[in-house]
Amino acid sequence: MSITLLEAQNIGKRFGGLTALSDVSLTIRKGEVYGLIGPNGAGKTTFFNVLTGAYTPNGGEFIFAGSELPTGKPHEVVARGIARTFQNIRLFREMTALENVMAGHHLRSDSSLWGILTQNRHMREEERLITERAFEMLRYVGIERHATTLSRNLSYGDQRRLEIARALATEPQLLALDEPAAGMNATETSQLRDLISTIRQDGVTVLLIEHDVKLVMGLCDRVAVLNFGKKIAEDVPAEVQKNPEVIEAYLGSSHAH
Amino acid sequence: METLLQQIVNGLVVGSVYALVALGYTMVYGILGLINFAHGDVLMVGALVALQVVLFLQKAFPLLGAVPTLLIALTVAMAVCMALGYIIERTAYRRLRNAPRLAPLITAIGVSFLLQTLAMIIWGRNYHSFPQLITTTPLQPVEGVFITPVQIIILVSSALLMTGLILLVNKTRLGRAMRATAENHRVASLMGVDTNKIIATTFIIGSALAAVAGVMFSSNYGVAHYAMGFTPGLKAFTAAVLGGIGNLGGAMVGGVVLGLVESIGAGYLGSATDLCHLPSWAQSASLIETCANGGSFELLSSNYQDIFAFVILGIVLIFRPTGLLGERVSDRA
Amino acid sequence: MYELAEAVPWLGSRNPRAARGVVLALMLIAPMIALSAGNTWVRILDFALLYVMLALGLNLVVGFAGLLDLGYIAFYAVGAYTWAFLASPHFGLHLPFWIVLPAGAGFAALAGLILGAPVLRLRGDYLAIVTLGFGEIVRIFMNNLNHPINITNGPQGVNMLDSLSLFGWDISRHIQITDDFKINSLVLFYYVFLLCVVGSVIVIRRLQLSRVGRAWAAIRDDELAAKAIGINVRNMKLLAFSMGATFGGVAGGLFGSFQGFVSPESFSLMESIAILTMVVFGGMGNLGGVILGAIALSLLPELLRSVALPVQQALFGHVILDPEVLRMLLLSLAMIFMMLLRPAGLLPAHARYSRPELAGAGRITE
User: Fold this and answer.
1) For residue B322, pLDDT beyond 50
2) What is the number of domains present in chain C?
3) Domain membership flag for residue B333
């Protein structure tokens, strides 16, 4: 259980004069659910965006599965095995649920233009496989009955699930979820917890950004806390909850509510 | 040296017309995020309406002086264009404010071609000569450099109009409401700004400026034509992008810079691409012969002048999409 | 043709197979019907098919990948001028069509890459304006490349282009079967063009239902999310640009052989806009809609011409609105009103989302 999957080394990111991340280092082990928490504006989503290549960091590097990750190139990061979801759901709105997941298979399919134009056997076989797997994936997250529904017509919770299914279709080693429980009711959140547990059991490491403290504490093996762009703690949930700095910065303020 | 000075004068004149039109593009883009494709055609309508009024006045009131005739024509043209701008905004654009971003652009293209077609129906396909009401005898402030009174008037009046607009936007209540609307429609309307009215006003002001520009354009070149708005429109848009779209000062700077680049560039394009300037070892036998006889072998002549605007547009958008002075509304996608 | 069949009144949704048959039969006998009204109408049908090809190609860029290209006609021009250079007395070359047509397609694809590479990062409306500029630049060059070396022959254009010769048959001549039965060359062109259209539909349909088509749709819907699932957005956009351009290039070559001469006048901005209107009018992203839009908007102006001119003559004693004006009026109004009233077009693209083949695949795994 202690093989390192992702190592962030001294990641820094500035926007103009604003320092969003400074010297953030953390280590995610293979097979765990790793939580990243912190108050609003602490730099969680920025960390996500730097990790997944949406932003280029101003310093530091990521070592993923033993070698350095390219920066600023989202599609190469996915190819290396890191998939993500978005805080404000970003589905392909004019495509069906099934097509969304099928699009997620893009990276793991290789039919050439020639193959597509001639509809050769490899292409047809691959298409059949993609469709089948996409259905399986929809079933895996529990929305197969909506396969031919336009994704924009799905309910909020189902859209979240679909986004996770689409990310899983890229066959990641690390699945990075950006506030997946935001806007969900209690039932939906508990279903989400089950889904994330299943995903972990099936061998995918999970990086979870979340506001819902209960969800994070119940689900994560280890948690890192960001505040003002700096990591102030990294430990198992029980220890983090006791950390005075964390209570001061984050839990303290939420307990006061 | 005289040639260069002359080209600078010409460039400034054309550039200030571009700048007036560019202001219309930039104001609308700043507020709606829409490239008002039909803006150049409003310029054309202004010019043709003014022409019609001038012809009428010359016939009906032959004793009316040149300046009153032109002023009346200009006023009517501005009024017509302001109404036109309002109608376009009201009927074609308002309903599409929340539509996917390509829909308003496609509509705008449609409006542009509709205006051209209607103008073609009313005024025909021919070029109309625009009466030279103000003397065209050029002055010679410097030996070998010519500037006509019309050009002087264009320079002075566009400078005045631009100053007026800047004051309007920065010092008045209306201007403040415009800036608030450009920043964020919803918030502005929550603050009590009637954003519909502000957007309509923006179109009206822009159209009035386009009408003036149209009259200037026709007075300077002496022609008016149903398709005359397209190229200046596109160039003015380039100017707006060059200066930083959404930025009034930028539109003016962009207009003048584009005018200068075009005018100076066109002047030197021919000789700059003349293969006779190549060292003799790089020339073929027939080329050497042509050049020796005092001929030239210009790859690009001044016919390619219009390419400058497109190339500048492409380069600016690709390498510095915020323009020279920066985009004021940068988060609008 | 599946979507086009959907549009057949009464039959479309009830019996798709029969509807498809109706569409196919109509397409096949159309030139015969037109012939009874005169050669002009066959010619008009021929042009309609060229517009269908252009609209299909543009749809690939605009409808599938969501990139608004206002300079599409430039690729048509590249195809047509390639034919003019390689198969006419202009340079004294008379290469066969199986070299010239692919060459035109290839050059057009190359032009698509050249235009595409620098402009890919631009957002929607800026992309539109820059592509418009590209189209104009191409036209300016066509007009002026007659000096100092004569390449394009300037505004006069190039004349006497070779016609299309298939297996030794020059299809610009009538084919005499018996003494009193001959096949009209315009009709021959119609079937050649129809073949090309069917070929294009098959190719585009295959692309649409592949990983490439899904990648394009993903980019169109949400570029950031497309990157996040590992789609190489730059390459896919380039592919869309050059594939779209290829269709333009082929159509251009056919146009050159059909028309017999090319000049810059045929490649004005108005034509780019006309093709865009066809795509928008029929339904962006829906092949049937695009075909319907192209046919409707190339036939309607001609119908108007044949109706409106005599009517005007009778009412006013002279013609007020000439055909060109009528066409522009029709196109611009179509563009405005479609966007205002029915932005998804006559046949919206939604039909494809309840695809039977997908439902079938679902059953397999259950």
Assistant:
1) yes
2) 1
3) no
Per-residue pLDDT tens for C92-131?
A: 898 988 899 999 999 999 999 998 888 888 877 889 889 9
Closest residue of A to C64, CA-based? A94
Which residues in chain A are closer than 8 Å to C203, comparing Cβ atoms? 117
Largest CA distance in chain B: 76
pLDDT band, very low/low/confident/very high, at C351 (cuts 50, 70, 90): very low
CB C207 within 8 A of CB C240: no
CB contact under 8 A, A90 and C222: yes
* CA-based nearest distance A30→chain C, Å: 21
Contact C94/A at CB under 8 A: no
Assess whether chains A and C touch, using the rule of 3 or more C-beta pairs within 8 angstroms.
yes
* pTM for this predicted structure: 0.90
The ranges assigned to domains in chain A are 1-81+173-257, 97-171
Mark the ranges of chain A whose per-residue pLDDT is less than 50: 1, 255-257
Res. C133: pLDDT tops 60 = yes
Residue B325 lies in a domain: no
Answer whether A158's CB lies under 8 Å from A146's CB: yes
Q: Does residue B332 lie in a domain region?
A: no
Question: Which of 323-362 (C) contact A at CB < 8 A?
Answer: 349-350, 353-355, 358-359, 361-362
Q: Is the pLDDT of residue B218 over 60?
A: yes
Closest Cα in chain B, distance from residue C298 (Å): 17
Q: Which chains touch A (3 or more CB pairs under 8 A)?
A: C
What's the mean pLDDT in C166-182? Answer: 73
What is the predicted pLDDT for the residue at C4? 73
Region A1-81+173-257: CATH code:
3.40.50.300
Please indicate whether residue B8 or residue C173 has the higher confidence score (pLDDT): B8
Chains B and C touch (3+ CB pairs under 8 A): yes
As a whole number, the mean pLDDT across chain A is: 90
pLDDT for position C77: 96
- Of the residues B113, B289, B301, the best mutation for testing chain C's interface (the one with the most C CB atoms within 10 Å of its CB) is B113
Question: Which domain covers residue B254, as residue numbers?
Answer: 2-319
- In tens, the pLDDT along C191-207 reads 999 999 999 999 999 99
Question: Residue C265: is its pLDDT beyond 70?
Answer: yes
Q: How far is A165 from chain C (nearest CA, A)?
A: 11
For residue C58, the domain's CATH number is 1.10.3470
> pLDDT at position C350, please?
60
Report the domain count for chain B: 1
Nearest to B260 by CA among B326, B222, B305: B305
Does the residue B49 lie in any domain? yes
Beta strand residue intervals within chain B, DSSP E: 128-129, 139-142, 145-147, 223-224
Could you tell me the residue range of the domain that residue C326 belongs to? 2-365
